[in-house]
Prior knowledge:
Blueprint: H1 2-17, E1 20-23, E2 33-37, H2 44-51, E3 56-61, H3 68-76, E4 79-82, H4 89-100, E5 104-107, H5 127-135, E6 139-144, E7 154-158, H6 174-208
Parallel strand pairs: 1-7, 2-5, 2-6, 3-4, 3-5
Antiparallel strand pairs: 6-7
Helix pairs in contact: 1-2, 5-6
Amino acid sequence: MIFHFVQALAYIPGKILFPARIYGKKNLPKGKAIITINHTSNLDSVLIVLGTYEKKYFLAKKELFKCKTKGAFLKAMGAIKIDRQSADISAIKRALSVLKDNKKLIIYPEGTRNRSDNLNLGEVKNGAAMLAIKSKSPIVPVWINSRPRAFKMTKILIGEPYELDKFYNQKLNEEVLNKASEIVADKLNEVKVVCEEKFSKKDNKKNKK
């Protein structure tokens, strides 16, 4: 399979250049799921894909595909090209198709990279909630504790999955999607708090030694 070949090829250099440790992998359900992640850099999806075996698809802005080599690598890793400047219906249909095929889709609810110093969650868009409700997929909240830096360990926590099932039979108007997106934001912030507490305690223990 091309994906696992590219994954294996990129694994060692990826781990050396941008090491990452992922906690809570047991929370990834079997079958379809939407993985919501705070967006810290263009490397976020690559860290998740290299750190977990199963192939995952993710939406990537079309600008990242300008370089043919980079575009080919991203496509092999599961990237779905999306035009963020318009309602890219083809990308949405492709994302729904991935979920229909019982596979996993990575989404950044903030819609763009978070450039703040503290990485507090920005405004959550309605895309993740809409796709989760339409496909009746569980959502897995994931928090990246720091912006990836070369040769510096990045810690990532995978939270417990949940569903927006109370919205499944409702008409998806703006009010409903806003309420559903509030839950998406709350669940991500819950994992953020656990993540910060978990890793700050470990860091404090190391400093005491």
